[in-house]
Amino acid sequence: MKNILISLFALILLLSSCKKDYLIPSDELPGWLKSKISQDEQIIKEQPKLMNAYGGWLRYSWNNEYYFEYHNELSSSLPMATSFNEETKIPSYTDNEYNREKCCLTYVWKGPKFSGF
Asked: What is the mean pLDDT of residues 5-29?
């Protein structure tokens, strides 16, 4: 019984240490976003008190396409919605068709101090 519990604990520890920081499958993320997240993770690793730790990437669906928004609780800049292929950028802080019709909020990545909404 003791060996079974130790093995189970080791398996749980192994699985949790191999977990990716993305909150959705990696293949659902565009390359440009993976790069931005990697940059933020490096900054957080080197200087965990900077505002990058309070940021998070969100994904919405609109017009049969995914759009990504970066939100940071300490930043005064307002998010832009960026399409998967990075060709379309839409201000997500104005009254427009995107903001009225976007749906299906999904968290993509959260900094360690990002509380969400």
From this structure: 58
Query: Does residue 9 belong to any structural domain of this protein?
Result: no
**Token pair recorded at residue 53:** 């730790």
Domain total for the chain? Answer: 1
The secondary element (H helix, E strand) that includes residue 70 is strand 65-72
CA distances from 101 to 11, 60, 92, 93, 109 (A): 43, 10, 11, 13, 23
Q: Which domain holds residue 44?
A: 21-110
Other CB atoms within 10 Å distance of the CB of residue 33: 21
| pLDDT, greater one: 18 or 26 | 26
Whether 69 and 58 have beta carbons less than 8 Å apart is answered as yes
